[in-house]
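dumping this here so i dont lose it
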């Protein structure tokens, strides 16, 4: 039974191989015959023709000559008139006086320092009693003039006032004058002493208040 199956299989394989080979031969014949017919048809339709050469282009014509330009002569210009220039007269020479040289005067030497003071001068008594309400000028009293007179006294070595100067006015000259008169008459001082104990002059500053007394 096994031998019979093997023989059958071998025959089947041989039959299939023959069929495949037959198809291959038929396909080859078909392809080669078809290609021959196509080449034959193309050769029959192919026709020859002549190619005509193109004519050369005409030569370029020369450009036209430029138009003639008429050159006009330049206009005639008259020469400028001749101007007579008067000769220049030099200005007169003026002599300038020369200033004299500046003379520099040397500065004055500084003032010597004030002398040493061993004791300062001071008022004797009460300065408020040097000018009293009884000294009020009658005209200023009636006019009710009031104010303050600031003053400076020059006191000599003897302790008496030798000069009076108003440093700030009360606003009424009559009151200022009266204050200096009373101060020179009544003001007394202890003398101021220098470094050696000697009396010396000095200045004293104060003020007088002019005020009308109330009744």
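and the seq i came up w/
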């Amino acid at each position: 039974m096994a031998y019979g199956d093997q023989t059958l299989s071998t025959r089947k394989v041989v039959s299939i191989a023959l069929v495949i080979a037959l198809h291959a031969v038929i396909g080859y014949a078909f392809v080669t015959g078809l290609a021959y017919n196509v080449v034959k048809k193309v050769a029959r339709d192919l026709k020859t023709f002549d190619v005509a050469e193109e004519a050369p282009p005409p030569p370029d014509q020369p450009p036209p000559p430029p138009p003639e330009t008429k050159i006009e002569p330049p206009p005639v210009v008259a020469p400028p008139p001749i101007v007579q220039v008067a000769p220049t007269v030099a200005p007169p020479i003026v002599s300038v006086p020369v200033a004299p040289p500046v003379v520099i005067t040397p500065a004055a030497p500084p003032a010597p320092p004030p002398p040493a003071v061993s004791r300062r001068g001071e008022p004797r008594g009460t300065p408020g009693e040097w000018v009293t309400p009884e000294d009020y000028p009658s005209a200023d009293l009636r006019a009710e003039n009031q104010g303050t007179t600031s003053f400076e006294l020059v006191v000599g070595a003897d302790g008496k006032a030798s000069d009076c100067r108003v440093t700030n006015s009360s606003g009424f000259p009559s009151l200022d004058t009266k204050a200096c008169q009373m101060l020179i008459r009544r003001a007394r001082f202890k003398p101021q002493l220098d470094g050696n104990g000697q009396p010396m002059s000095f200045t004293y500053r104060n003020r007088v208040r002019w005020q009308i007394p109330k009744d």
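Helices lie at 2-45, 138-143, 173-186.
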